[in-house]
């Protein structure tokens, strides 16, 4: 009995000294939660394959903005154009995602100008990338975390910031713009989350392992 107790004590001490094994979900969550998440995200652009992948996602985002977006009036649109952006946020983190989102917002405007350029929407694109990046980067993919990120983006960015920008651009009352935007985002929330869930699951099984090769 004494020997058995001693064995378990030594084993526990050994595991504590060695720390968690690399590659575990706990380690990924701890790394993502630390301040190193931001620096790690910036370093993603050091790798040529990551830059090339971002270029491909940029081209896909432009295509989807034309064929995958439905306008419901001058102040409202729905579509799947956010998918490439969220893929970049998931794979490369908040810093890389913010750069990608900001650049793509400007590029899309230059390719298809729709009224005067307004930097507020560029800020919104970067804010959305920041949220998705911090929620998803180097974390084990989880449906409820994805739902929380999507809900926060829709509430803070889509309903909050973008309604303020539209109010400033078109002079319409904030409270007049708010109800239809709340309703549309509530309808889109479960649909967008489910779609992103299946897309990111496929990305985590196929694309992510290839991009991570040679990093460690």
Features:
216 residues; mainly alpha; two-stranded antiparallel ribbon; disordered N terminus; Arp2/3 complex 21 kDa subunit ARPC3; 78% helix
- CATH domain fold name: Arp2/3 complex 21 kDa subunit ARPC3
Overall number of strands: 2
Q: Class, according to the CATH hierarchy?
A: Mainly Alpha
| Beta-strand residue fraction | under 5%
How is the largest sheet built, in terms of strand order? 1-2
The tally of helices reads 9
User: Average pLDDT value?
Assistant: 82
Shape: globular
| Helix content range | over 70%
Domain unit count: 1
Written description of the protein model:
- This protein is mostly helical.
- The chain has one domain (34-212): Arp2/3 complex 21 kDa subunit ARPC3.
- It has nine helices and two strands.
- The protein has helices spanning 2-18, 25-33, 36-43, 48-67, 82-111, 119-136, 143-170, 174-205, 207-212; strands at 69-71, 77-79.
- A two-stranded antiparallel sheet has the order 1-2.
- Strand 1 (69-71) and strand 2 form a beta hairpin.
- Helix 5 (82-111) crosses helix 8 and helix 7 runs antiparallel to helix 8.
- The relative contact order is 0.11.
- Mean pLDDT is 82; it is low at 1-24.
Question: Which helices and strands, and how do they pair?
Answer:
Elements: H1 2-18, H2 25-33, H3 36-43, H4 48-67, E1 69-71, E2 77-79, H5 82-111, H6 119-136, H7 143-170, H8 174-205, H9 207-212
Antiparallel strand pairs: 1-2
Helix pairs in contact: 3-5, 4-5, 5-6, 5-8, 6-7, 7-8
